[in-house]
Amino acid sequence: MHDLVWMSTDAKAKGCLSLLESSPDAVVLFWFADTRATFAPLIQSKFPNIKLTHAFDVQPHEVFEKNVIFLEHHPMRSKEANSLMDWKASNIYVLSALDEALFQQFGGDKTIELMRKMGMREDEALEHSMISRSIERAQQKLEKKAVSDDAAGSAAEWIRKNVNL
Q1: For position 112, what pLDDT does the model report?
Q2: What is the C-alpha separation between 23 and 14, in angstroms, rounded?
Q3: How far is Cα 116 from Cα 11, in angstroms, rounded to an integer?
Q4: How far is CA 124 from the centre of its chain?
Q5: N or C end of the chain: smaller count of CB under 10 Å?
Q6: Buried b / exposed e across 36-71, counting CB within 10 Å, b at 16+?
């Protein structure tokens, strides 16, 4: 799995389009309806044949030997792990932005400040195994604090409804 992290959701959207240009047959997945509502018009205006699918609804044969693009992480690591268990995808990319709810729980704003001070451009994505491990640990921390797993329209709503902060 490749974690790609941008400073902002706008930069993430541009990165998503760039990734789709190099892989127009990718399977694009989302966890929350708000994410679909945000990204579908943008993606389908440039790639009308790409359908955005809820991650719970995809079947292993649909992603077999294809590139998969998740438009977000689920706050619970176990949800992602269970979904990916039987997949034999070519590559799995998870696109994130530091201004999203998951990252806001763990100092996303401070990280954005630091990245800017270091001279990083907003359109640059971070990708490293250390980042992936940090995201996994953050998800596990949220999962331990979860008191339920009620459905939600966005990651922010899911956290408000399900996590005892």
Answers
A1: 82
A2: 14
A3: 14
A4: 16
A5: C
A6: bebbbeebeeebeebebbebeeeeeeebeebbbbbb
How high is the pLDDT of residue 148? 93
pTM (global) more than 0.85: yes
Give the burial class of 150: count Cβ atoms within 10 A of its Cβ; 0-12 exposed, 13-18 middle, 19 or more buried. Answer: exposed
- Predicted pLDDT of residue 11: 96
> Residue 122: how many CB atoms within 10 A of its CB?
15
Tell me which residues of the chain have a pLDDT lower than 50. Answer: none
| Residue 123 CB neighbours (<10 A) | 14
Q: Tell me if 33 sits within 8 A of 152, measured CB to CB.
A: no
**Distance separating alpha carbons of residues 144 and 102, to the nearest angstrom:** 14
How far, in Å, CA of 105 to CA of 56, rounded?
Answer: 24
* CA–CA–CA angle 124, 25, 6 (5° rounding): 15
